[in-house]
Amino acid sequence: MARRHAGPLTREASQTARNPLLCRQGRNGGAIQVTGLYVFIALAAAVIVVGVVLYNRLVSKDQMARNGWADIDVQLKRRADLIPSLVTTVKGYAAHEQALFTEVVERRNAAMEAGDDPGARGETESALSRPVARILAVAEDYPDLKASENFLELQRELADTESKIEMARRFYNGAVRELNTMVASFPSSLLAGLFGFGERRYFEIETADRLLPEVQL
Prior knowledge:
The protein has a single domain (about 60-210), classed as LemA-like domain (de novo design (two linked rop proteins), Up-down Bundle), CATH 1.20.1440.20. Helices cover about 80% and strands about 0% of the residues. The chain contains eight helices and no strands.
C-alpha cells in the first residue's frame, strides 16, 4: 500500500517545528494579552463601582442638607406667624412702645423676603430677634401682661419654636459640614464638579431667647 507523503511545510510552521521555543513564546504572549485585558476590565469595574458609591453619597449628603434647610424654613415661618400676635398682645398694655412695634414689623418683613440664602437669612432673622427680645423685656414691666394667659401661651410657643430652630440649625450645619468635606476631598471632588454639587453655606442665628437669657421663656 502506497504511503501518503505530507505536503511541504510553510516557512513559519517549519520554523516552529524546528524551534519549539517559538511555539511556547506565542502561547505565552497570548496569555499575557488576555490577562492584561482581564486586569483592565477589573480596574474599570472598580472605578465604576467607586464612582457610583461616591455619587450616591454625594446625593445623600446633599439631600440631608436640603431637608435640614426645609426644617429651618418651616420653623422660621412659624416664628414669623407668632410675632404679629405677640406684638398685638403687648401693644394692648404698652401702646407707647410704637417705635419698637414698628421695628419688629419691618424686621419681620425683611426676614420674610430674605430668600433661601442661609447667610442672608441668618442675618435678617437675627436682626428680627433683637426687637422681639426687647418686646419680651418690656413685658417684665407690666405684671398684668406677664399674668395674661394669652401672653404666656405666646411665650411658650415662641420658646418652643426657637428651640426647634436651634435643633434644625444643628442638623443642617452638620449635614452641610459632611457635604462640604466630600465636595472638597479627592476623588469625590471630581464627581462633585462633574455633576454640579457645590459647597453650601452654614446657617447661624441669634434667637430671642439667647438675647434675653434672664427672661424665662
